[in-house]
Amino acid sequence: MDLFFVIFVEILYGIASLALISIGLAVVFGMMKVINLAHGEFMMLGGYATITAVNLGINVFVAMLIIAPLLVGVIGLLVERLVIRHLYGRLVDTMLATWGLSLFFIGIVTMIFGNTTTSITTPIRGFAVGNYQINGYNFFIIFMACLLLIAIYAVLKITRLGLIARGTMQSADIAASLGYNSDHIYMVTFFCGASLTGLAGAIFAPLVGLVPTSGSAYMAEAFITVVAGGPSLIIGLLSGATAFGAINQIVTFTSSAVLGEVAILVAAVIILRLIPKGITSRFFKGKM
Amino acid sequence: MTMNRRKFLATSGVWGGVLLMPRIALAADTIKLGSVLDQSGPFDAYGKPMYKALQLAVGKINEGGGLLGRKIEVISYDTQSDMALYTQYGQQLTRQDRVDVVHGGILSASREAIRQTMRKTKTLYFYNVLYEGGVCDRNIFINGVTPSQQVEALVPYAMGQSGKKVYILAADYNYGQITAKWIQKYVADNDGETVSVDFFPLDVSDFGSTITKIQSVGPDLVIAPLVGGAHLSFFRQWAAAGMKTRIPLASTTMGVGNEHKVLTPEEGNGIMVAYNYSQELDTPENNAFRNAWADRFDGDQSMHEIAVSQYHGIMTWAAGVRKAGSLERDAIITALETGISIDGPGGKVTVDPKTHHAILDVHIMEIENQGMKLIETLPQRQPTDTQAVCDLQANPDDNTQYEIKT
Question: Tens digit of pLDDT for each residue in A101-138?
């Protein structure tokens, strides 16, 4: 019985971590149709921001939940103003530009911190469930993923800002003709996407060691999750993360970590073969 | 003065020759020591102190007048934890720089990437790292501990502290694969049972589901030959899950790159290891070595197991050159095969003529407050695993890495 609970928590953790990794990408790619190849580097920057802040003596939760998302959000804002806004609607050009940005960020961080592994200690202790020990930080990740998904849902669904953002994403021309500045709305959306990515990077920082190239490890998983999820922002993200997170954890548990990674890719190929436009193009249609 | 083509060529040839001359003269004066080490990237915790050890050793030899009246010049390349760069720099050192000896390589994968280049170009090669054993090649000298020196000692001690059921977590490349087989052998020799073996690619850093899996199997002991910066996460996550007090942990690699100084005491305490060196060894040689290191690198104290192996390796090579009285490869090999010994910070290290491996002390230790607490010293252990399969005296043309039969 304890074992089932522990495995259940591990699966939830797998789903939550995929959702966290992809949430910023879902906002930027899902809503704005900008393929941000520097997504992984935004996460890496969030991680470094956290570790640096903690080493300067700032409380780890303040560093993780406030400093990292703000800093990466501001960097995202600069990137949007300087590069991406000139390239809206030009898919291949944005890919090239953001790929260049990712190399730039890796280079800068290597110059500042060196090409070496840095890490901090996990701030939450483990505890016992029956005969098993669980990493307490897993619950924090699950909690944060739920909180962020609910928050995004609430903002988009309830607030006027969310309504305007959704309208602009559907048809920028009509939103503009109604008097909304689509340029500003894109800017704010990109800022939010970048902050969310920075926050995700910050949350993972205490769990794993960081090197300047850490970001690339997240890229594949994030894109697979968002693409397989399909057009709906939140349900799509959730369904992609659930499918791959559960498959990964179950295969890892029954065989090995390597096969767990392989299983994600195999599952992605099968899903995209059967439903090329993603899970939410067939199920949960029209939901957010 | 008019300048035609012939005149131009003649004058520029002469001037070019004059400009090149001091370089040629200088090149003949120094002995070239090639180094290939990961001084950046996920394996830099191993490589940076190894390079410092190299500088210290070469500095010491040069201050004492060099070798055969000539100074040593170091030609070094940083391989950035990228195996492809080893092949490239290995070629460069042997064919372009034409060095007299190469000390380097950290991961076993990197050693195998350059070993054949060294052999083909007849460049004497020293691999100064703890490894999985079995390399039998007259051109290479190895002074790191092998499984029969390390694992054979560690397994019975760790099992005595815990129990008979052992779970192995290993890095997924030649070192981890072969070492895992050795661990299984020694576990079986001590009437134990290996309940499971899991392998992890070097970039895996999330061990959450593995930790759950270990608990569901319920071993008495976990032995972890994990390698590099990403795998360090395992020890953090193991402690964060509160497993430290439940299942004891032993490792054949933890601490080799001073990982126990990166982990907090709570994360590291109690992990069982067996190495040739620890900073806490209280011998005159080690104290002198630590002081010399601190003096040279502004108080730095980053020396560790394989940095000390690197130091031993260079000192052994220097002793070989002195005894041979020549820089000729075969003369040095013959000199080293007389069974040369040096006294280094890790104790007495003797070349085994049969295998080109080393006979040295091994200490069983436990991590305690970011240091290594000595439990037992096993003096002058032989590399019996390699001796059982390799005899370079009888069979000097051998060029194999023997693996354990299962």
Answer: 999 999 999 999 887 778 888 888 778 887 788 888 88
Query: CB of B73 within 8 A of CB of B33?
Result: yes
Residues of B in contact with A115 (CB under 8 A): 40-41, 44, 80-81
Distance, CA of A55 to CA of B238 (rounded, Å): 23
What is the reported pTM? 0.84
Query: Domain residue spans in chain A?
Result: 13-120+132-212
Distance from CA of B363 to the nearest CA of A (A): 28
Neighbours of A164 (CB within 10 A): 18
In B, which residues are within 8 Å of A114 by CB distance? 40
Contact status, residue B371 vs residue B271, Cβ threshold 8 Å: no
**Res. B22 pLDDT band, cuts 50 70 90:** very low
Contact A208 B208 (CB under 8 A): no
Q: Under an 8 A CB cutoff, do B42 and A249 touch?
A: no
Whether A133 and B243 lie within 8 Å, measured CB to CB: yes
Strands B371-381 and B358-368: antiparallel
Cβ <8 Å between A257 and B200: yes
Q: How many other CB atoms are there within 10 angstroms of residue A285's CB atom?
A: 11
Residue in A14, A115, A126 nearest the CB of B41: A115
Interface predicted TM-score (ipTM): 0.79
Please name every residue paired with B342 in a beta bridge, in sequence order, or none if there are none: B349
Strand partners, B358: B351
pLDDT tens per residue across span A57-86:
999 999 999 999 999 999 999 999 999 999
Q: What is the Cα gyration radius of chain A?
A: 19
Whether pLDDT at B54 is above 50: yes
